[in-house]
Amino acid sequence: MAKRPASYLFSKLESTGFFFRGLAGLKNTITENENLKKENLGLLSRLADYEDLKNENDFLRSALDISPRFNNEIVYANIYQFQLGADGYDVLINEGTGGGITEGDIVVTEEGVLIGRIEEAQENFSRALVVSDTDFNVTAKVLDSETAGIARGALAQGLYFDLIIQSDPIKEGDVVVSSGTDLVPPALIVGTVSYVETNETDLFKKVKIKPAMGEIKIGRVLIIRKNGGS
Amino acid sequence: MAGVKLFIIFLVVLVLDGLVLPAFFGLRNSFLSLLLLIVPILYMGPKRQYVACGLFFSVILEMSKGISLGGLALPFLFTSVVIYLTQRFLDIQYTYDARFGLSKSVLTALMSVVFIYVFSFFYRQGGVNMEYFDPVIGLTTVLEALVLVFVFNIVFNKKSDYARI
Predict the structure, then answer these.
(1) A2 and chain B: CB distance < 8 Å anywhere?
(2) Does B29 lie at the interface with A, CB-CB under 8 angstroms?
(3) Interface touch A157/B30, C-beta < 8 Å
(4) At A121, is the secondary structure helix, strand, or coil?
(5) Number of domains into which chain A is organized
(6) What is the extent of the structural domain holding A179?
(7) Among B13, B24, B140, the residue to mutate for chain A (most A Cβ within 10 A)
(8) Beta A189-197 vs A206-211: how paired, if at all?
(9) Is A198 contained in some domain?
(10) CATH number for the domain including A168?
(11) Per-residue pLDDT tens digits for A152-190
(12) Is the ipTM of this complex over 0.90?
């Protein structure tokens, strides 16, 4: 019971804060609205493609008797504290081992944005490392591209995208998602590429990622259990 | 009396840091609660009373932030010793006179940022996280320290609140 008021307050304050920050950005609303409409049409088209592919994929999986690609159990929870401590970023979540949470579970938002990974689970709460913490890393790829590497946290700098060789196509604004080749499920949004530095004398490009979780509400989250809930 | 005032400031900081600042203002680089451990002994001198207050606050912070027992208290003690030695041997008693001066306040704020890095060094048991030397984090910490120092300027205005080493 004692864990609920803080998470409720966090969620309400976050919504109010977003409202006021939205008011401050009202002057750009018309341009932003036009861009969003354009982007929405593009996304609808891709959604139609996605639905078609999903149906085809489901049919082929059942025909070939392959188990579903994603069958992990999901737990709903709330964040009630976001802190930069002496050791890095972490968040406290109001679900712990009592709710079936274990270390290594993945924390995402309802929109599929990667928040972090459970580092420590207690009976009633758990602590998660945030994607921009220096101890966090995830294998990731650029959406609609073969470019892949390892995204690692860099605190206020967001994330660094390592192991991107000079010939890999990547540009600012590209969306980076988890590739699913480690313990993090695939297709979770990590962020957008904010900086690319190309130097022919170096083997790898210097790439920075702006975390997607910086621009959305993170009060309510989903926890994807690594063991499929078993 | 100074302890009571300090405790009230601590309670406000406890609510601000981690809850109000990130949720309402979107500020996610706040060191406010750690600053509140450092600033009192830097501002008023490492008196036994303020070290004890800092220890008490450390334990409450450990509980509220889910850190294991001693996780903050021990680095705080080590940092206090460093502050004591710095003030004792280098004779840097920068805050005791002309407390309301802007330059003294800025100097104290800058010193507290340096000692936050010292605190972090002890917290990581000798490890240094280079990502902390970031302009965004540094500037946020300086501004927060300045705000705390200005609050202290207003709240602690009696001679008895200060120690001379």
Answers:
(1) no
(2) yes
(3) no
(4) strand
(5) 1
(6) 137-214
(7) B24
(8) antiparallel
(9) yes
(10) 2.40.10.350
(11) 999 989 999 999 999 999 999 999 999 988 889 998 999
(12) no
